[in-house]
């Protein structure tokens, strides 16, 4: 018999709803698994075992009483630690917020609770979502379940690793420049960055507002579609939320991709992309062709500017977003008064933030400062327009764009930590979707030397169902 | 002309839109005065991680109303920008504001305000109008530079401000004061801001003298303080220049307690606000139709009201300027007229004794204990010769202190005019008897007559009817002869 | 073309000051070197022809997203102050201003 902890979300909710298993025994099994692997993985920053078990018993009680339960009744969820949870500390894996307890829930958390999901705890990440390896955590790096000496990817490394190691059925991450897709790829799970504005950002602790979205992680495509269906939809609390009708992405999920046109940009398979990765993804594209899709190679010339553009925008926004951490209202503060407030602020911020966060804040401050705004920030926004237009043009010809998620395989912990730029380069293939605002998914696409490869599928605005369809079809091939 | 005489003053007026019920970006009450510290805050206005701003629709509408009243051009599309700077009153260490550079577009640009100074009409150009959020209130223990630490109350944080920026064309602290009075009156007439509320109208001023550098004075927390702060700063700069020292371009803080300006920032801290578009707020677009709709809600403004006063009540333009300088005063005036008061008489009383006594009691018109009803009654009593004009002044003084109607004051203090022939005769007799010498002189010296009449007035507490006293005195003196 | 001028340690210190981050003595040199490498990389976009290109402020074409002027409940004072390290009589406590 399959162990309970390894069930998919769909299986769990089906079994619980028909009382084949109880939510409590399932959640208990998951926590046993967590206790077994957590010491070596470090996927969680905070675990909420007692409230999770309490919630599980509530679900069981509802079912015993014949009451209606939500779509995610009894399904376990791991939440990235930059998504606010009322009464549960939300640290962003930073010393700055080590003891920050939000007095409110993020909209996505409200939606999960409404569907009777069980929140297990908060997952590890790169501090303030700044990184691609989850090494920049005040609580130590998350390790890759496939190889404990390697990174889990980032910044939502904890969420991806937790799923890969069966520590949860579902997880939430956030994706500013690839932070869902990168760890999904490195840990061989499904991860989606939704269309900008599809999922409410209310309660997501901002890194770069104009780029980021909360995104679902799941063990398979169906679960990913299920989780998105719960969290997506217009939210009045987010002024940048798109006014689109709530959709159930699981409803018409088919594996029929006949007639679908795929664009494969040369830039996604070019310089800096590892040979093994290129081969795996091409293999994936060929199998989609076998299912009735067609593909064509093409070029996205402004892709080469995407990474610089992304980092300039992200760092600039971050420098402003993270200005609020001065230690007065919340966050790390020295207890004894400094000479004056300036001294106090700069001392609190030096101690509260880790080196990568300080680096990005200072670089972002530079990019926005007098005399450089036009040269860097505004210029980046203009280049963003060019990239966006190029993608829009491509989407007139192709239903989706496919390439690798990450140009490389999961690397060793500590390998790139001293060279920030080399780490930034890892995001080259994920950042375009954030700049454009369109959705992108990473789907497991084989394993090389026991290390996972992810295939990235990018669709035009609000093309999530198309991504799920391709993913669903592809999954079928891989399973065979 | 004295050296360093030419002064240029530009103002940035920060006006709270007190007519709004909630804050600019969240549902917390904007009515923060007198509330417990930090009792009107939420994740948004406290700048908690993860919170997002949501724009108050009516704030935009009221800002458009102001812009229309100041003849500014409303932007078809405008954006919010972040103004990044660190300060302990900032919940996020950036202020959501608007900007006119780097691709920023404020809600309105241009405009003009006319006001009267030294009997001449002066026009001040408006550069732009912006919507922005108010920072928190800082509480010092004593003065800002000696307070050992600072306490922060975020109730005010996030309240809607509009910022009105003028060209630096004001020439004196007095001009600045009169100009601000005019703006205040316009805002009151629009019913967007109650200038009487503490801290509802504040301003920053930039001041430069010929050959001097520009100095910005911040934290002028009421219009009353403006004249004082500007005067201090001009004198400070003049003294520096007179000593052949240079004025540093800097930001100074007006310390209301010590009544001096204090240098706030060191040199390394030059302005670098790192403005950039607020990613969490989408653009505002305003259609012509919407502007027309808002236009319809604009009531009569001070200038139009003044013109009407001239036409309807035949008042001189000086009176009109004073009466319309404050909405409450103009309203008071018109209520008096509605109650049958004579326009010129009411105006005279309001402009002189009424305003003087109010000022002395540190009250505003809205809180006056004298009402239009009681003022008009007082004027009636003078018309009916129940009291003299002179007595009326002291009656009004008491009315303003106690709120009693004129008749009650007159009765209580026995101030009714003496118009009885018998009574005056008795007074005159007494005076002549007590001043035989003067009575003697009165045959040859007109001054002695005045003296004797004066004595009657004194004896009667100025209540004796002057005409009658005069008549009787002359008659009695003839008899005395 | 824009002159390639590298940032000095003093420049970095000044920018760090603008960001109210005190630098550790030992990391100043490393940061300076890293910043120059990264900024050099960023300068690649200098060469992109963006004449007449509108900047993308928001990817979705939204405008006029409002809330009505309605008062909602605020948090309790206790809740508001819960995460503050230093507080006094219902106020947050900050350091000396001048």
Overall description:
The complex is a heterotrimer of chains A (480), B (481) and C (98). By secondary structure, chain A is of the alpha/beta class. Helices cover 39% and strands 15% of the residues of chain A. In chain A, helix 2 runs antiparallel to helix 3, helix 5 runs parallel beside helix 6 and helix 7 packs antiparallel against helix 15. Chain B is α+β, with helices and mostly antiparallel strands and 481 residues long. In chain B, helix 9 packs antiparallel against helix 10 and helix 12 crosses helix 14. Chain B is elongated. The mean pLDDT of chain B is 91. The mean pLDDT of chain C is 92. Chain C contains 3 helices and 3 strands, in the order ααβαββ. The longest helix of chain C is centred in the middle third of the chain and has 15 residues. The chains are: A alpha/beta (480), B alpha+beta (481), C alpha+beta (98). Chains A and C meet through helix 9, helix 10, helix 11, helix 12 and helix 13 of A and helix 1, helix 2 and strand 3 of C.
């Amino acid at each position: 018999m399959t162990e309970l902890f390894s069930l998919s979300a769909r299986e769990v909710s089906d079994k619980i709803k028909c009382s084949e298993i109880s939510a409590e025994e399932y959640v208990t099994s998951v926590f046993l698994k967590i206790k077994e692997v957590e010491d070596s993985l470090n996927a969680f920053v905070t675990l909420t075992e007692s409230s999770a078990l309490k919630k599980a018993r509530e679900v069981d009680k509802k079912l015993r009483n014949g009451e209606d339960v939500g779509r995610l009744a009894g399904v376990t969820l791991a939440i990235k630690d930059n998504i606010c949870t009322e009464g549960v500390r939300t640290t962003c894996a930073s010393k700055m917020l080590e003891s920050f307890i939000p007095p409110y829930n993020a909209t996505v958390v409200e939606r999960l609770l409404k569907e009777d999901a069980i929140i297990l705890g908060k997952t590890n990440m790169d501090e303030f979502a700044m990184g691609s390896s989850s090494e920049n955590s005040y609580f130590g790096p998350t390790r890759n379940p496939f190889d404990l000496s390697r990174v889990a990817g980032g910044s939502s490394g904890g969420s991806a690793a937790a799923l890969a190691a069966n520590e949860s059925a579902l997880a939430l991450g956030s994706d500013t420049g690839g932070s869902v897709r990168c760890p999904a790829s490195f840990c061989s799970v499904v991860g989606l960055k939704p269309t900008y504005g599809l999922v409410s950002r209310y309660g997501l602790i901002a890194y770069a507002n104009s780029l980021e979205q909360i995104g679902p992680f799941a063990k398979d495509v169906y679960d990913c579609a299920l989780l998105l269906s719960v969290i997506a939809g217009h939210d009045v609390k987010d002024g940048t939320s798109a006014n689109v009708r709530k959709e159930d992405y699981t409803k018409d999920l088919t594996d029929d991709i006949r007639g679908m046109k795929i664009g494969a940009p040369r830039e996604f398979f070019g310089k800096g992309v590892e040979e093994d990765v290129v081969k795996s993804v091409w293999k994936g594209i060929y199998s989609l062709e076998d299912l009735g899709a067609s593909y064509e190679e093409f070029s996205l010339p402004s892709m080469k500017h995407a990474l610089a553009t992304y980092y300039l925008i992200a760092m600039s926004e971050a420098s402003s977003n993270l200005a609020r951490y001065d230690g007065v209202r919340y966050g790390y503060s020295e207890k004894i008064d400094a000479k004056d407030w300036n001294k106090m602020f700069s001392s609190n911020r030096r101690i509260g933030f880790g080196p990568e966060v300080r680096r990005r804040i200072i670089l972002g401050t530079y990019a926005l400062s007098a005399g450089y705004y036009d040269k860097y920030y505004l210029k980046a926004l203009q280049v963003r327009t060019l990239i966006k237009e190029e993608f829009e043009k491509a989407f007139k010809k192709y239903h989706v764009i496919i390439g690798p998620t990450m140009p490389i395989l999961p690397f060793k912990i500590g390998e790139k930590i001293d060279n920030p730029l080399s780490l930034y380069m890892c995001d080259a293939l994920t950042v375009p979707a954030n700049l454009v605002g369109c959705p992108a998914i990473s789907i497991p696409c084989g394993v090389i030397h026991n290390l996972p490869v992810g295939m990235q599928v990018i669709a035009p605005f609000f093309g999530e169902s198309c991504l799920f369809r391709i993913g669903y079809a592809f999954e079928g091939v891989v399973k065979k | 002309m004295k050296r360093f005489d030419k002064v240029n003053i530009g103002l940035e007026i920060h006006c709270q839109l007190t007519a709004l019920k909630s804050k600019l970006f969240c549902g917390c009450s904007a009515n923060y005065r007198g509330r417990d510290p930090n009792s009107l805050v939420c994740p948004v206005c406290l700048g908690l991680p993860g919170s997002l701003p949501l724009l108050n629709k009516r704030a935009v509408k009221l800002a458009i109303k102001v812009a229309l009243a100041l003849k500014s051009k409303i932007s078809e599309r405008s954006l919010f920008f972040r103004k990044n700077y660190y300060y302990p009153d900032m919940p996020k260490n950036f202020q959501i504001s608007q900007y006119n550079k780097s691709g920023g577009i404020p809600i309105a640009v241009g405009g003009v305000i006319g006001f009267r100074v030294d009997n001449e009409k002066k026009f001040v150009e408006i550069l732009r109008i912006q919507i922005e959020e108010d920072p928190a209130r800082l509480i010092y223990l004593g003065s800002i530079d000696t307070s050992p630490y600072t306490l922060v109350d975020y109730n005010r944080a996030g309240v809607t401000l509009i910022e009105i920026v003028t060209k630096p064309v004001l020439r004196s602290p007095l001009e600045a004061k009169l100009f601000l009075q005019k703006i205040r009156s316009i805002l009151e007439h629009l019913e967007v801001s109650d200038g009487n509320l503490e801290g509802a109208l504040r301003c920053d001023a930039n001041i430069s003298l010929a050959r001097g550098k520009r100095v910005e004075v911040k934290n002028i927390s009421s219009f009353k303080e403006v004249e004082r702060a500007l005067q201090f700063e001009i004198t400070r700069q003049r003294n520096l220049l007179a000593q052949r020292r240079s004025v540093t371009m800097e930001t100074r803080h007006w310390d209301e307690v010590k009544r001096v300006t204090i240098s706030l920032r060191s040199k390394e801290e030059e302005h670098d606000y790192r403005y950039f578009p607020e990613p969490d707020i989408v653009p505002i677009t305003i259609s012509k139709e919407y502007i027309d709709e808002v236009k319809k809600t604009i009531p009569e403004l001070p200038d139009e009201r003044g013109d009407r006063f001239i036409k309807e009540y035949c008042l001189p333009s000086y009176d009109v300027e004073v009466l319309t300088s404050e909405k409450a005063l103009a309203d008071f005036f018109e209520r008096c007229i509605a109650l049958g008061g004579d326009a010129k008489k009411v105006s005279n009383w309001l402009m002189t004794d009424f305003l003087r006594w109010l000022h002395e009691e540190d009250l505003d018109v809205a809180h006056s204990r004298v009402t239009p009803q009681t003022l008009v009654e007082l004027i009636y009593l003078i018309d009916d010769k129940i009291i003299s004009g002179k007595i009326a002044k002291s009656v009004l003084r008491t009315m303003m202190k106690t709120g009693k109607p004129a008749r009650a004051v007159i009765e209580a203090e026995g101030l009714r005019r003496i118009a009885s022939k018998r009574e005056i005769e008795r007074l005159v007799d007494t005076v002549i008897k007590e001043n035989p010498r003067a009575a003697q002189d009165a045959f040859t010296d007109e001054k002695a007559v005045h003296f004797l009449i004066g004595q009657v007035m004194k004896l009667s507490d100025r209540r004796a009817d002057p005409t009658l006293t005069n008549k009787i005195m002359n008659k009695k003196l003839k008899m005395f002869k | 073309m824009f002159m390639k001028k590298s940032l000095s340690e003093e420049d970095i210190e000044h920018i760090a000051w603008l960001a109210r981050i005190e630098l550790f003595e030992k990391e100043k040199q490393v940061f300076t070197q890293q910043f120059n490498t990264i900024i050099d990389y960023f300068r690649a976009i200098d060469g992109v022809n963006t004449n007449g290109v509108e900047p993308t402020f928001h990817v979705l074409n939204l405008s006029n997203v409002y809330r009505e002027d309605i008062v909602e409940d605020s948090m309790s004072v206790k809740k508001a102050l819960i995460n503050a390290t230093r507080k006094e009589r219902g106020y947050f406590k900050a350091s000396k201003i001048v």
